[in-house]
Give the backbone structure.
Amino acid sequence: MTTDLDDLLKRNHLSITESRKKILSLFVNHTGALAHGDIEKKAGEKFDRVTVYRTLQTFVEKGIIHTIPTSDNMVRYALCKDNCTEGHHHDNHVHFVCKECNKTECLDKVTAPSIELPYGYVAKTVEVVVTGICKECREKSQ
Amino acid sequence: MTTDLDDLLKRNHLSITESRKKILSLFVNHTGALAHGDIEKKAGEKFDRVTVYRTLQTFVEKGIIHTIPTSDNMVRYALCKDNCTEGHHHDNHVHFVCKECNKTECLDKVTAPSIELPYGYVAKTVEVVVTGICKECREKSQ
DNA sequence: GTAACTGCAAAATATTTGCATCCTT
DNA sequence: AAGGATGCAAATATTTTGCAGTTAC
């Protein structure tokens, strides 16, 4: 059976393996970003810790996922949009981190504004991290 | 001798010690952000690694410095503006990370734009990280 | 003098690397 | 069959914790 996941891997010249499919499916079926720990947990003891590290690294290199900047020391990953290709990522990401449930989401609908930089500075990418309360948590607390 | 550093510590109800003054001075005398490693290096073998960890943590708690979100896994710290107080930080930070020299700067002159969030979401803070080439590196490469 | 801070040792975590084996193509 | 991917072991690196000695107030 050929799935979307297989295609995605194929398009990136990666061999199709169980761990890659599994880890990739976690991203596809999950809105929001995942930290390394989340992936190990959700994969359910199935893979070696090292495999997760290497798989994530490979995915980042191929432009399938990207890292999300956060203020804590946890590196989080999220699926890239289609126009992210190897070595060249989409410029404007807006991420939302909920203070309550600690979930991280990519807000695809929201465009990052262009930033006016001081003279002489050249911007390549602009990443925006908004922290606050997400819709679900806000409704819960009312 | 009473210095600005002493004052800053006093204002935050911290006892004035050598390591705190030294680490704080690194921030004051350095435009830009510092990672844990930078601080250990610049302090010059003078302090225990653990002291640096604890001092940074204390400073963050007191609102003297804040962490900067970045896509790599290095946590960087920078001085807070005066209106950062314990538990309540200034809302809009714009940071610039140079791809060449890897320096991180706070762009105080640049204001972060307000972000239009989806319905139901409430923003508390907006952090903007711009990566690109800083003025110095750009001039060098020309 | 007392409370707070530091340094050392060591524990707990996180990440990377080498290599033999197994799987994909 | 060949190259790449995985799993295990172990080496590194990072961060945290406990405690005794020292310092600031």
The mean pLDDT of chain B is 83. Chain B has one domain: 2-141. Chain B has five helices and six strands.
